[in-house]
Amino acid sequence: MVAQDDPRRSAHKKPAAPLDFFLDGGRLTARQGETVLSALRLAYGSADMSSRSRLRLGFCLMGACQDCWLWHSDGRRLRACTSRLEAGMSLVTRAPGTI
């Protein structure tokens, strides 16, 4: 989902090119230059879903609280709030190899 008319995006800037990425096998679309967390918050809303879901949508938004850890599908960890999206990035909400 690309929210071109979303008021949270700066109205005076030309929108960056869209890119696709994957979360738990599902395809999402965001914009180049966005952090993983900003794209997830636009796609899923800003509510903290950690109590009912594996997806945590961040707390401090600056890399201090450790609330937004995700994994690349190859096992590398990343903080969603400080990591920029890359086209085709494949992320999972649980460490690879866990149930």
User: What is the count of helical runs?
Assistant: 1
Distance between the termini: 28 Å
Q: How does the helix and strand content classify structurally?
A: mainly beta
CATH fold node name: Ubiquitin-like (UB roll)
CATH class placement: Alpha Beta
Shape: globular
The total number of structural domains is: 1
Strands side by side in the biggest sheet: 2-1-5-3-4
Compressed to H and E, one letter per element, the order equals EEHEEE
Please tell me the overall pLDDT.
80
**Oligomeric composition of the shown chains:** single chain
The fraction of residues assigned to DSSP E strands is 15-25%
Radius of gyration: 13 Å
Would you identify the regions where 5 or more consecutive residues have pLDDT less than 50? none
| SS elements, strand count | 5
CATH architecture: Roll
Helix content estimate:
under 10%
How can the largest sheet be summarized?
5 strands, mixed
Describe what you observe in this structure.
By secondary structure, the protein is mainly beta. The protein has a single domain, classed as Ubiquitin-like (UB roll) (Roll), CATH 3.10.20. Helices cover 9% and strands 22% of the residues. Strands 2-1-5-3-4 form a five-stranded mixed β-sheet, with helices on one face. The mean pLDDT is 80.
